[in-house]
Specification:
Elements lengths: L2 H10 L5 H14 L3 H5 L3 H8 L6 H17 L7 H5 L6 H12 L8 H10 L12 H9 L4 H17 L18 H4 L19 H14 L6 H5 L5 H13 L4 E2 L5 E2 L3
Antiparallel strand pairs: 1-2
Helix pairs in contact: 1-2, 1-7, 8-10, 12-14
Length: 263
């Protein structure tokens, strides 16, 4: 997979499961196989193509990153972590994932699954807790220096966390490193910190924003406010969500008071 394909997939996978991302990612790669291809389309087209993946600001940031790659790097996704982190919407994890999986550089790649593996394997804790500055150092200490083995290790650590060392009861019987896991050797002590917060969706501003965007994605021309009023009964919450969409640049208001996706 080339670096651009990795970058698109990693942005889409932020807070979104693979099963939902894969078909959209394939469509995007067919339509926009290079940064220049995505940079050349309008924000409205990008938001429409994003569909129901959620957190649609990611779509705008991804397009902005494509524009930056074209302007700053002659259309080629950089392989340097600092240059990657300077792209819109690209943070610590995404930059290292692109450098590692797109270019084979030995970079510590730390997502939620990897943090959980390290918490149990190295520190003997049932849960990883909040992200820490030491997370990168923890995984860097485990990563082989050879570039090929380093990339393979990063994939393996992610898969181990996603399929075996899972957030619920882990499948320790299938774990290839069970005999050296600090948590297992300590008797698998239960988590003694605050419980994990489960994000709800129904009734939240995220749901309202999504419904407002659904109307605009389906429209072929700017719509009046009354068309948006129908999607949610709570006028205060609806107004707040519409205002946040305007602030985020996901919606624009025309001079005559109509609403549309950004041009």
């Amino acid at each position: 997979m080339d670096a651009w394909a990795v970058l698109v997939s990693e942005v889409m996978l932020q807070q979104t499961p693979v099963a939902r991302v894969e078909p959209v990612w394939r469509e995007w790669m067919d339509r926009w196989p290079t940064p220049a291809a995505l940079a050349g389309v309008s924000p409205a087209e990008v938001i429409r193509a994003w569909g129901k993946l959620g957190y649609p600001r990611r779509a705008l940031r991804l397009r902005e990153a494509a524009v930056a790659v074209v302007d700053r790097h002659a259309g080629v996704v950089p392989d340097d972590v600092a240059a990657l982190e300077a792209l819109p919407g690209v943070g610590t994890y995404t930059a290292r994932a692109v450098a590692c999986f797109g270019y084979g550089h030995p970079q510590p790649v730390v997502d939620t699954n990897v943090r959980r593996v390290v918490a149990r394997l190295v520190h003997g804790r049932a849960e990883a807790g909040n992200a820490r500055a030491a997370d990168l150092a923890d995984i860097a200490a485990l990563t082989p220096p050879d570039p090929v083995r380093a990339a393979r290790f990063s994939v393996a650590a992610m898969e181990l966390g996603a399929l075996v060392c899972v957030a619920g009861p882990p499948r320790c019987g299938a774990c290839p490193v069970r005999d050296r896991c600090a948590w297992v050797l300590a008797g698998s002590p239960p988590h003694d910190g605050p419980p994990r917060r489960v994000q709800k969706f129904a009734g939240t501003d995220r749901q309202v924003r999504g419904r407002l965007l659904d109307v605009l994605r389906a429209a072929h021309a700017p719509v009046p406010a009354v068309a948006l009023d129908a999607v949610w009964d709570d006028a205060v919450q609806r107004s707040r969500c519409l205002g946040s969409l305007l602030t985020d640049g996901l919606v624009e208001q025309t001079d005559d008071g109509l609403f549309t996706l950004p041009a």
